[in-house]
Amino acid sequence: MTRTQILIIAAMVTVFAWSAVMAVLGYLAAVATLAPALGLAVQQIASVGRPQSESVPRHRSEAVEDKEGRAS
To answer: Fewest CB within a 10 Å sphere: which of 10, 24, 46, 54?
Structure first.
């Protein structure tokens, strides 16, 4: 495992452990309130773990004139 993978796993375990402790202690309202933030944290951590692909240059589309002769 690479260092990055270890850090990603450690971050995910920390976030989910904190959520589980809050739920066990009876702070379900806090967990429910913070669920979107936890979801975003998971999404961001997962995006760091994925290999970045090279962007493919897109072809520029030519301006097309409408019925009145204006380019859009």
So the answer is: 54
Tell me: pLDDT of 21 over 80.
yes
Residue 55 is encoded by which pair of tokens? 């962007």
**What tokens were used for 57?**
């240059």
CA-nearest of 2, 18, 5 to 45 is 5
The C-alpha atoms of residue 62 and residue 66 are separated, in whole angstroms, by: 13
Tens of pLDDT, residue by residue over 22-62, are 888 888 787 787 778 778 877 887 787 677 665 655 666 66
> How high is the pLDDT of residue 62?
63
Q: How many Å apart are CA 44 and CA 42, to the nearest integer?
A: 5
**β-bridge partners, 71:** 65
